[in-house]
Write a structure and sequence with these properties.
Shape of chain A: flat
Largest interface: A-B, 91 and 101 residues
Distance between the termini of chain A: 24 Å
Strand content of chain B: under 5%
Distance between the termini of chain B: 37 Å
Radius of gyration of chain A: 26 Å
Oligomer: heterodimer
Mean pLDDT of chain A: 86
Number of helices of chain A: 15
Number of domains of chain A: 2
Helix content of chain A: over 70%
Low-confidence stretches of chain A: 1-18
CATH architecture of the largest domain in chain B: Orthogonal Bundle
Order of helices and strands of chain A: HHEEHHHHHHHHHHHHH
Radius of gyration of chain B: 23 Å
CATH class of the largest domain in chain A: Mainly Alpha
Structural class of chain B: mainly alpha
CATH superfamily of the largest domain in chain A: MetI-like
Number of helices of chain B: 11
Chain lengths: 308, 276
Amino acid sequence: MTATAQDGATITASGRRRSPARAALDLVTGLSAHLQAVPLAVILGAFLLAPVMMIAVVSFWDYDFARLYPDLVLTNYAETLGSRVTWRTYFNTLRYAAIVWALTLFIGFWVAYFLAFHVRTTTMQMVLFLVCTVPFLTSNIIRMISWIPVLGRNGLVNTALIDAGLIPAPIEWLLYSDFAVVLAMVHLYTLFMVTPIFNTLMRIDRSLIEAARDAGANGRQVLWNVILPLAKPGMAIGTIFVVTLVMADFITVQVMSGGQSASVALMMRNQMSLLQYPAAAANAVVLLVLVLVMVAGILRIVDIRKEL
Amino acid sequence: MSGERRTAEFWILALFFALFVLFLYGPLSAILILSFQGPGGGLTFPLNGVSLHWFHNLTQQQAVGDFGSSFRRSFLLGIMVMLVTVVVSLLAGLAFRRKFLGATPLFYLSIASLVVPSIIISLGIGVMFQQIGLRPSWYTSAFGAHLTWTLPFGVLIMFAVFNRFSPSYEEAARDLGATSWQTFRHVVLPMIAPMLIGVGLFGFTLSYDEFARTLMTAGTYNTLPLEIYGMTTNVTTPVLYALGTVTTLFSFLVILLTLGAIVWIGRRRLRGQGTT
């Protein structure tokens, strides 16, 4: 197999050296690589780069209830960063991110570990992985709403606990609380942790584990000293997904807290519905810088291009 | 290793996995059951009789929302996003196999597209359209907003596909005298077809369910997730669950058809290999 591939490569290489037609073809394909990248660059330029720069510009504008005034004022930033509410909201959002990250990492790792190392046939692995993936392809809002009949005052959990005689009255904090927000986020985002960890675990060379076993390591030592360090890139990619999704979330916080908790994106959403775009833009810039710094920090640990 | 007996670790993790699946599907099945609530029933258990009342209710004129046309818009938008995602990701995937000017910045721009908070994209495109003087609509601004979410997934998947794709197949085709178009059409494309279908599935479903990016960019006419969101604050009858059941079943149908297509292509190729 390797021999034929090598042969094929030598023949092409020598052919390339000889014919000027091949050189011309290389030029064309080199040009076509640029052309092939154009659509992606244009779309991301128009709908990602341009809007983000627009936000950066608008964050320095002045506004009143009716319209925006192009300007260069720092009031939007001063109001945002000078407000106690903003700091509390940022702190609350970071708290959600930390809790949800820890829970999804724990659940995601063990689910991926089970799929990669305990399910023996590839078919079964794929079937079970798909079982985990399917909910991710359905509506987030519907998945959130589906907790209402489960956690509500007269929901399944409360009814079951009362019927069992464990509690005298319904637990109020199950729904419309921080607990509900975290639960729904874990429900929505764990898959983003499972997939990259599963991917890295599947690429671990099984002979490494056998070697560790032969050298006398027990199951726990293999897990701690071999598998966990090798799973780090997957965990890092999952972390990028989960942290950025939680930092950007407003609908889960709004629906599941019943309007009692705040997040940065929800604060932006409220400013947007009041047409205070420059204020929302200043918030967006702060949030974006925070998120990008966090992601850059994680990218120092892992080279994404190598992990794909 | 395959001959070993199941350890205690296996059973503990199997139980953990089963609980995880229950956690994923339990609530979903709760609203599936409750959507068959009797006409007098409420938003929680117990079922007050079994009926199709709320499904029938969906087809009637609503106080808030118009599902028929918002579904059509979401469906069309999903198809548009799917087609563009597949074609653009494939082209970008091919481009990234070779060196080109700006490859690294473009790669990191794609990653940025994944991590930039969705509401910032929504706000940015909304304000940009407003300032240019364009009217936002689901087929322009929302279309672009959805692509910023589906394209990075498509590009990363194609990146992974081509990382594992041996160039010797193409070299063999070229040595047999195939033009670069023939090589692509008859060698590369059939091999990556299942992955392209997967990218298409991602493109469609992510767009069909997208909410945050549509919020400021949909313009006058709502997409389905925006309708559903409007309902969560206004509607207090199981008609909400009926809608949830219908859209979820629709998503399941799309996923099933896609997987069916992938399996069918795989089988056909195996048979092709058998005869030649």
